[in-house]
C-alpha cells in the first residue's frame, strides 16, 4: 500500500474516532446538564409555588383586616419597582425567555448565564408571588439553557458544544417544569433547531430524562389532574 493510502486510512480512522468521542462526550455532558438544570428548575418551581400559595392565603386575612390594604399596596408597588429595575439592568430576562435562547443559538445575542438565572428566579418570585397570572414554561426553559451555557463556559467548551449544551439545558428545563421529557425533546428539535438531528435528539432526551427524574424525586409530579367523566348509558 502506498504511503498516501496509509495516510488517508489513518486520517479516516482519526476522524471517525473523534466523531464517536464527541458523541459520547456530549451525551455524558447532557446528563450532567440535565442534573443541574433539573435541580435549579425544581428550586425555581418550589420558590414560586410557595410564594404564590403564601400570597393567596394572605388575602383572606387581608379581608378581615382592611387597614392592611394600603400597606399591601405599597408592598406590591415596591415589588413591581424592583422587578422593573431587574429587567432594566438585565433586558435579556424580559418576556418568556424563549426568543433570547433562540437568538443565542443563532449567535445574534449573548447571555450572561448566572445573571439570567438569578434574574429569572427573583423576578418570578416577585411577579408570581404578587398574584400575577404567569407561567413557568418560558422561564424554566431560559433557566435550563443558562445552566447549559454556564456549564459550557466553566469547562471552556467550543461553540458547537456550547450550542448543544444550551439546547440540552432548555430541553431539561421544560421537562423539569412539567414532568414532560418527550415534550422537551420535541421542543429542542422543532423550536430551537428547526430540523431533525439524531445527536440533538439523543442528547436532549438524556438531559430531559435526568431532569424529569430530579423533578419527580423532589416535587409532586401530579401537575394535571384529569377526572373521569361518566357518560350516561344510552
Element layout with pairings:
Layout: H1 3-64, H2 69-89, H3 98-105, H4 113-129, H5 137-154, H6 159-178, H7 181-193, H8 198-218
Helix pairs in contact: 1-4, 1-5, 1-6, 1-8, 2-4, 4-5, 5-6, 6-7, 6-8, 7-8
Can you tell me about this structure?
With 234 residues, the protein is mainly alpha-helical. The protein has one domain: Clc chloride channel (Orthogonal Bundle), CATH 1.10.3080. The protein has helices spanning 3-64, 69-89, 98-105, 113-129, 137-154, 159-178, 181-193, 198-218.
Task: Kindly summarize this structure in a few lines.
It is a multi-pass membrane protein. Helix content is 77%, strand content 0%.
Features:
single chain, 234 residues, mainly alpha, Clc chloride channel, 8 helices, 77% helix, 0% strand
Largest sheet: none
Tally the helices: what do you get?
A: 8
Average of pLDDT: 85
Oligomer type: single chain
**What is the CA-based Rg, rounded?**
22 Å
Query: Termini, distance in Å?
Result: 82 Å
Dominant shape: elongated
CATH class: Mainly Alpha
- How many domains make up the 3D coordinates? 1
Uncertain stretches: none
Q: List SSEs in N-to-C order.
A: HHHHHHHH
CATH architecture: Orthogonal Bundle
What portion of residues belong to β-strands?
under 5%
Judged by helices, strands and strand pairing, the structural class is mainly alpha
| CATH homologous superfamily designation | Clc chloride channel
Keywords: Chloride, Ion transport, Membrane, Transmembrane, Transmembrane helix, Transport
Membrane topology: Multi-pass membrane protein
Transmembrane segments: 26-47, 67-87, 164-189
Pfam family, one: Voltage_CLC
Amino acid at each position: 500500500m502506498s504511503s498516501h493510502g496509509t495516510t488517508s486510512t489513518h486520517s479516516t480512522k482519526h476522524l471517525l474516532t473523534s466523531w464517536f468521542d464527541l458523541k459520547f462526550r456530549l451525551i455524558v455532558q447532557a446528563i450532567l446538564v440535565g442534573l443541574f438544570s433539573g435541580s435549579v428548575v425544581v428550586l425555581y418551581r418550589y420558590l414560586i409555588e410557595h410564594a404564590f400559595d403564601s400570597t393567596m392565603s394572605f388575602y383572606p386575612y387581608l379581608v378581615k383586616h382592611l387597614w392592611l390594604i394600603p400597606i399591601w399596596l405599597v408592598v406590591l408597588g415596591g415589588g413591581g419597582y424592583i422587578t422593573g429595575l431587574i429587567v432594566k439592568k438585565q433586558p435579556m430576562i424580559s418576556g418568556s425567555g424563549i426568543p433570547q435562547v433562540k437568538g443565542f443559538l443563532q449567535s445574534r445575542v449573548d447571555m450572561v448565564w448566572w445573571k439570567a438565572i438569578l434574574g429569572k428566579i427573583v423576578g418570578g418570585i416577585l411577579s408570581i408571588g404578587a398574584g400575577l397570572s404567569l407561567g413557568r414554561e418560558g422561564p424554566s426553559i431560559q433557566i435550563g439553557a443558562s445552566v447549559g451555557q454556564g456549564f459550557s463556559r466553566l469547562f471552556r467548551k467550543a461553540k458547537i458544544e456550547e450550542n448543544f449544551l444550551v439546547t440540552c439545558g432548555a430541553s431539561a428545563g421544560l421537562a423539569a417544569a412539567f414532568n414532560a421529557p418527550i415534550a422537551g425533546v420535541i421542543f429542542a428539535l422543532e423550536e430551537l433547531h428547526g430540523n431533525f438531528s439524531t445527536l440533538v435528539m439523543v442528547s436532549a432526551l438524556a438531559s430531559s430524562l435526568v431532569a424529569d427524574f430530579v423533578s419527580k424525586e423532589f416535587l409532586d409530579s401530579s401537575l394535571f389532574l384529569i377526572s373521569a367523566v361518566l357518560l350516561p348509558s344510552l
